[in-house]
Amino acid sequence: MGFSKFKNFLMGYVKMVETYAFIPGRKYVSISITGQHCELMCPHCQARYLRSMLQVRTSEEFENLLNHLYVKGVKGFLISGGFTRDGYLKISDEMLSVIKKFKGNHESVFSIHLGMVPDTLVEKVWNAGFDFIDFEVPPSDDYIKSYRNLRFKVDDYLRTLEKLLTLDKGFAVPHLILDSRTSTLEDELNVLGKIAMLKPRLFVALVEMKVPDLNDFSRVKEVLTTARRLFNEVALGCMRSPKFKVYDSFWVSNGLVDRIVMPQREVIDSFKLKVVNACCSIPKDKFHLFT
Fold first, then answer.
1. What are the b/e assignments for 60-96, b being 16+ CB within 10 Å?
2. What is the widest separation between alpha-carbon atoms in the chain?
3. CA-based R_g, the chain, Å
4. Residue 263 CA to chain centroid, in angstroms?
5. Is 203 helix (H, G, I), strand (E, B) or coil?
6. Residue among 109, 49, 155, 100 nearest 279 (CA)
7. Given this structure, which CATH class describes domain 17-290?
8. What's this model's pTM, rounded to 2 decimal places?
9. What is the pLDDT of residues 242-273, one digit of tens each?
């Protein structure tokens, strides 16, 4: 095959990738079930991210908020909050009962940030009817120590991810942070390969927020190019700096991502991206609720 034919073949492959733009917030909201309280208090966050979420502390407040939001057109709910000192989100049986009851009466999507969830809680979350878990896999052991103040290793997170995926291949969606100060490109590619062996339905890439804002484009490109070969679906998630969004058109035009969160408006218009007003991790059979 000559070069020009090969180039046309690649262009044909790129066109086969249908990329969706995901815009959460209006129909898919984040709720902290711990208010602004967090026991873990990671150095890079210090519970600041909780302030931007809707906040509840009791199951009664939680149920009232869900009903209020649903009437306003919200169909998706990301349950999050501060983690315990053991690195996971503690959710009460009462709140799990609220979710199970709500899902039984309303067509909706529920996701959760659980962290290093204990086995005893996994079954409860599954039985409550959560659609999926957003599960962060750290890029290195140093990342866990420096950013999470935890004694776990990357392999501990991978074992937990594997357990979650044994329930259903769509139940956990792995997120990997790229271009971290605490990892190398080799670290990220190594973890990426191990995640791929577990065959999740979707892989989500995040890009570490840096100050000054100097992310390494070539490093992120290398990981996304590899991810394109390893996974059926690849998403570029909400964590990336505004300045790094100048590359959004590159990811889309080169077919490196199937899903991209909050891309630049001109990217949506130029590539005529279909917009889904939800978290990028939702399964395809739920898209109709958010378009």
1. ebbbebbeebbeeebbbbbbbbbbeeebbbbbeeebb
2. 67
3. 19
4. 15
5. strand
6. 109
7. alpha beta
8. 0.91
9. 999 999 999 999 999 999 999 999 999 999 99
